[in-house]
Amino acid sequence: MKISKRLLATVLAILMLCSGLAVSAYATETTDADLATFTVDDEALTVKAVVDGTKFDKQKDTVALVISKKVATSYATDETVKIGETLFDKNDNAVITATGLKAGTEYAAKAVVTKENDDTIIYEETFSILKTRTAPKSVTATAGVGTLKVDTVNGSAIVVKDGEPQVAGVNVEFKLVNKEGKAVDAAGKVITDADKEWVKDYSFKGLEQKAKYTVNVRFAKNSEYKASEAAFVVKTILESNTAKPAAPVFTAVTKTSITFKEVANAQYSLDNGKTWKDSPVFSGLPSGATYTAVIKVKATETKAESPVSDSTKIRTNTADVFEAQKADIKVTGIAAGDAVKSGSSLSVSANTVKRTEGTAQWGDTQLVPVSIKIGSTSAAFDAKGKAEIQPSAGDNGKTVDVVVTYSLQKYTGKWENTKTETVTFKVTVVTALTASLGSFISLITNTIPSIFAQIIGILSKLGVTFIGLISQKKS
């Protein structure tokens, strides 16, 4: 059969067309993980696709970015997302940016390269645009000697769960900045990598004493939220305080209360430091109870608290306070108006005015005899209130003061001298001769009263005066 050239050409054309249709019918779709990279910007609510220029021919192929949002369990096109123009960088990579994303939404980004023959290369990746979380409202931290520790965030204490610090179930992270504005790690060393400035540690040590540090706190990034803005607090690292206060003393004790002598910026304890009060007054205590009292000076903005003082035992009273009365003083062996003999030893006793032995309690007072002075001569009382004194011959014929001095003591855990009290009266100092004559006449007085009275009457008329005829003992 003979075929014309025209018919042959037509057949060949049809075959070629069919061949082309066959090629088109068998176009392929390939997934290539290296096709593109996606960069998500939570702040700008954008995603940028950079498609590798070696994967396509920019003169013949088309490059596209498709964004779908998750709805229930599938993804659908988000009409509010705007796909930007395809641009090319200096390396002929295609750069496409999608804008208008929504915080808190999960998306699928697909880069698609369509070849001249309708073959396609794709790469798809899912991501979420994170929500913004409000910054912490409050932060408290405690500065110590070379240390700083974050205590609470938004009023909640920090707990550690699965190695992560949390408050109210939300992870938190910290950044400590020194006075030069440089971030430091938990050991106080400067952090040189800015990406590592935020740390999990909330307790820092090795810090410079008396220097100010700023501790920043923020809620950490998670699958739903981006990292929050930070809250911060500035603290001065304390200087060590080695000055231990003196042991406590007290200004008042009753049957139900104890009052410390106040110390500036101090705290007070009656249970040997187990519990502390800022007030020096402890009331509502049981009668007769014994306590171990200590004090310490509180920390300031620049200095740590002091060591605890040595302790002092103190007991509440069991009765009303006894106050020694000067009116109860008794002096024997000498009295007002007596004639005392110079040069001879005179035995004098003075009593101690106090509670019954062994019953002293805080605030009680007592009067203890200290010394006696007759004219120009002095003597001390012994522990039993006894004194031996010889009036001076230089005071013969004089009426002189007798001064008995007492120490007023107060019981504050021990007896302490507070002031002196004196009892003063007058006596006359006579010579030994006058004293002997007086003693002789005293004897006559005891044995012959009537004769003595007559003698006295006669002598009085003669103008003779006898001094110290009464109460003077013969030496």
Low-confidence stretches: 8-13, 15-24, 433-453, 458-475
Q: How many helical elements?
A: 3
Strand content: 35-45%
| Cα separation of the termini | 188 Å
Helical amount among residues, as a percent range?
A: 10-25%
Give the integer mean of the pLDDT values.
87
- Rg estimate, integer Å: 54 Å
Main sheet properties: 6 strands, antiparallel
Class computed from helices, strands and strand pairing:
mainly beta
Number of strands: 34
Write a short abstract of this structure.
The protein has three helices and 34 strands.
Could you walk me through the main structural features you see in this protein, from its secondary elements to its overall organization?
The chain has three helices and 34 strands. The model is unreliable at 8-13, 15-24, 433-453 and 458-475 (pLDDT under 50). The strands form eight sheets. Strands 14, 15, 16, 17, 19 and 20 form a six-stranded antiparallel beta sheet that branches. The protein is mainly β. It has helices spanning 5-25, 432-447, 449-461, and strands at residues 29-31, 36-41, 46-51, 62-71, 74-77, 82-83, 87-88, 94-99, 105-114, 120-129, 139-143, 147-153, 156-157, 159-161, 164-167, 170-177, 183-184, 203-205, 212-219, 231-236, 250-253, 258-260, 266-269, 281-282, 290-297, 312-315, 331-332, 339-341, 346-350, 365-374, 377-380, 386-389, 399-411, 415-430.
